UniProtKB/TrEMBL annotation:
Record-annotated membrane-spanning stretches: none
Domain FAD-binding FR-type stretches: 42-144
Organism of provenance: Lysobacter firmicutimachus
Domain of life the protein comes from: Bacteria
Protein name, as recorded: Ferredoxin reductase
Positions of the 2Fe-2S ferredoxin-type domain: 286-368
Gene3D superfamilies assigned to the protein according to its UniProt record, in alphabetical order: 3.10.20.30, Nucleotide-binding domain of ferredoxin-NADP reductase (FNR) module, Translation factors
């Protein structure tokens, strides 16, 4: 796969900013600048909500205008979004669902999640004019600068959002490669971007669309039923082994896609929003020593270390909770862990460990 050119993470300071920086506290500048314009800041990336658009029965697309401190993205990447809720900033990771635009605006699609503090705020209460905090774009499942061959996108639920950004980017290029999208949801009311997807399929002969419903009978052209399995792939993408495959969705969906296709496809890349279900082998507990604090904890196998440690009362830095942003990474001095998405086992000492997507397989010593 060709190398991907990513946006720069840093903007050189102007001579004036370098001159006044020793005398200006960014927090003080931000306080007074925001009185003049809501997204002015010393260096913090901020964005104003410019529009709200319904994406499905339970999802909304927010169109955001970032300030000049945000450094851009590549289609398929994510970013951290922060909002003030009840006096505190709550941050979560969201996929950018549009390709980079000439006007600099960006879009995220937010599904309302039961108990999701930020998702419910953005879906139910955020309004045009509200200002959100932005983190830098991250994520490696992106389109290369030059695409060739044939492609297959496998999406389930919210997993459509990064794939939609890549699809829109390909459409901007005139759909230069054959692309098939298989998109699963429980019910058709939960499918996002349906009208646009159908229009793209009608406009570009290279693009084929299949909408698959797991809890509803198909009724309309282009719909089918059933979950992801070897039969559905053979029916809807019979040449999948000759394609580059991108898969995104819940952990169980991605794990199935990986098991069915990764070994034989031309290429395979995936991101999972949640870990796959625990297997029967993920039983019992292990002892985890926290080297800096001296604590020793009994933690369950098969559960992400981040969740297990939080359940013990630890407050740890975290971001995407998908193994992408590295916010929760810490040092591991000894022990064996298993990656919850790939099943890979790692026992190297003195290595960095992403707590959100790894579970303990043996006793561990962590640099916490």
């Amino acid at each position: 796969m060709n190398a991907v050119v990513r946006p720069s993470a840093h903007r050189p300071r102007s001579p004036l900013r370098r001159l006044v920086a020793p005398f200006v506290k960014p927090q003080v500048f931000d306080f007074w600048a925001s009185r003049l314009h809501p997204t002015w800041s010393w260096e913090r990336p901020l964005a104003r909500i410019e529009a709200r658009e319904s994406a499905s029965a339970d999802a909304v697309t927010l169109i955001l205008k970032p300030n000049r401190h945000w450094r851009g993205f590549v289609a398929g990447q994510h970013l951290m979004i922060g909002a003030r809720i009840d006096g505190a900033t709550v941050s979560r990771s969201y996929s950018l669902c549009d390709a980079p635009r000439a006007d600099g605006r960006i879009a995220i699609t937010v599904k309302a999640i039961e108990g999701g503090r930020l998702s419910r705020h953005l879906h139910d209460r955020a309004r045009v004019g509200d200002v959100l905090e932005l983190g830098p774009a991250f994520g490696e499942m992106v389109l290369p600068e030059r695409v060739d061959g044939a492609w297959l996108f496998l999406a389930a639920g919210s997993g459509i959002t990064p794939l939609m950004a890549m699809l829109r980017a390909l459409a901007q290029r005139g759909m230069p490669v054959p692309l098939t999208l298989l998109y699963w949801a429980r019910q058709r009311e939960e499918l996002c971007f349906v009208d646009e997807l159908r229009e793209l399929a009608a406009t570009h002969p290279n693009f084929e669309l299949r909408l698959l419903l797991t809890r509803q009978a198909p009724q309309h052209p282009g719909e089918a039923g059933g979950r992801i399995d070897a039969e559905s792939l053979a029916q809807h993408a019979p040449d999948w082994a000759q394609r580059r495959i991108y898969a995104c969705g819940p952990g169980g969906f991605v794990a199935t896609a990986r098991e069915l296709t990764a070994a034989r496809a031309v290429g395979f890349a995936a991101e999972a929003f949640t870990p796959p279900p625990r297997s029967d082998d993920d039983t019992g507990t292990v002892e985890v020593e926290l080297a800096r604090s001296g604590r020793r904890l009994q933690l369950p196998r098969g559960q992400s270390l981040l969740s297990a440690l939080e359940a013990q009362g630890l407050s740890l830095a975290s971001g995407c909770r998908m193994g992408l942003c590295n916010t929760c990474a810490c040092g591991k001095a000894s022990g064996t862990t298993r990656h919850l998405h790939t099943g890979d086992v790692h026992s190297e000492p003195a290595s960095a460990l992403r707590l959100c997507v790894n579970a303990a397989s043996s006793d561990l010593v962590l640099d916490l």
